Structure prediction request, 397 residues.
Amino acid sequence: MRESTITNLPGYDSATLDQEFARLERQVDEERVMLRTDEAREAFRVHWLGRKQGKLKAISDAWVKGAPSDRKGAVGQRFNELKTKIEAAIVVAQINPLLARMSPEEKAVFTGSAQQMLAEKLKEQQQAKKLDITLPGTSQRTGVEHPLVKTMAEIVSVFQRMGYSVGLGPEVESDFYNFESLNFPPNHPARDTQDTLVVGDQEKKPLRERLLMRTHTSPVQIRSMLEQDPPLRLIIPGKVHRNDAADATHSPVFHQVEGLCVDTNITFSDLKGTLDNAMKAFFGSAVKTRFFPSFFPFTEPSADVQISCIFCGGKGCRKCKQSGWIELLGCGMVDPNVFGAVNQRRIELGREPVYDTRRISGFAFGMGVDRITMMKYGISDIGLLYSGDMRFLEQFA
Ligand code: DAH
Prediction:
C-alpha cells in the first residue's frame, strides 16, 4: 500500500479539488487490482476506511471539516464519490473469487445484473447531483373554481333542489340533434340565428349525419328523451360554439344551462312558477320575473324572460339601460313537432314512441351562463373569462 500523508489542500477552487481527488482515485485504481486475497482486501479497507487511522478520516478532518463554508458542498461531493469508489472496489474484490468459480453462463447472468445495478446506482447519483437545494423552489398553487363553472354549478344546484337531475351531451353534435329534430328544417331561416361551426369534409354524408360544434345545449333535450321515458326533469349545463367574432360581449365559445320538464298536465303556469322560483333562489327573493312573447322553433308558445334589475331593484340604472329589467333567458312549451321527431327516432331505434302528445306536455328553457356570470361579478369583457390570466381568475378564489 502506497503511503501518503494528507497535507492541507493548496486551495479550494474546483480545479485544485478535481486534481487532488483525481490523484486519490488513481491510487485507489492502482491498489484495487492487487486485492487477490482476503488479507489484502482487509488491509485495503483499513487503510482507506479505518475509523481512526483511515485515509478518508484524515481527508475528512483536513479537507472537508476545514473547508470554507461556501466550498463545503464542493469538497463533500467529491469526498462521497471517492468513498463510493473505495466501497465498490471492496465489493468487487469480494465477488471476484465467486466469479472465478462460476461457469461462463452463470458469470454472464451475474455480471449482467451487477452492471445493471451499478448503472442504476450511477444514475441515482447523477440525479442527486442535479438537485441544487439552494435554488428557489417552484410553488404549487392551489387551483380555484373558474367563475363560469361556479355560476353553472350554482344554477344547476338551484334546480337540483327542485327535483331536477343533471343531463349531459356531446359538444360535437350531428345536424339532426342540433337542428332537424328541434324543428329547424334544412334551409329554414331560423338556422341563420345560430351561425354554425361545422366539421369539414363531410359533403358525402346525408345532411342530418353531418357533424358540427353544437350551437346550443338544446340537442341534449332530444338525446335525453330518446334514452328516458317520461316523466322527465332535467337540468343540462354545457359548453356551446358559434361562428361569432369575439368582442366585449361575444365569444365563439360560451356556456348555457338548459332545462326540460316533461310529464302529464304540464302547463305554461308550471313554466312561469318554476322559473320565477328559480330566479328568486338564484338572485334573491326580491327579484321579479316577467314573460314576453318570443320565437324558438322548438317551443310553442315561446317566451323571453326578464328579471327586475338586480342592480337598481327596478328603478332604472345604467346596467338595465334605465328600463328596470334585464333579459335573461328563453323558454316555452315543447313544440309537438319535437315530440314527433323523438317518437320517430325512437321507432327507428326499435324503441316505443312514448312521447304521446295527447297524454303528455312539457316546457323547456335555456340561459346564457357567461352573461349571468358577467352581471354577477361586474365583468365588462367576456374575453377575460377565456384568457386564462391568473391575475384575473385569482380574484374569484
Ligand atoms: N337554445 C336556445 C338558444 O341557444 C335557447 C333556448 C330557448 C332554449 C328556449 C330552450 C328554450 O330550451 O325553450 O338560443
Remarks:
- Residues 147-396 form a domain with the BirA Bifunctional Protein; domain 2 fold (CATH 3.30.930.10).
- The two ends are 69 Å apart (CA to CA).
- The chain has a mean pLDDT of 92.
- The longest strand covers residues 253-264.
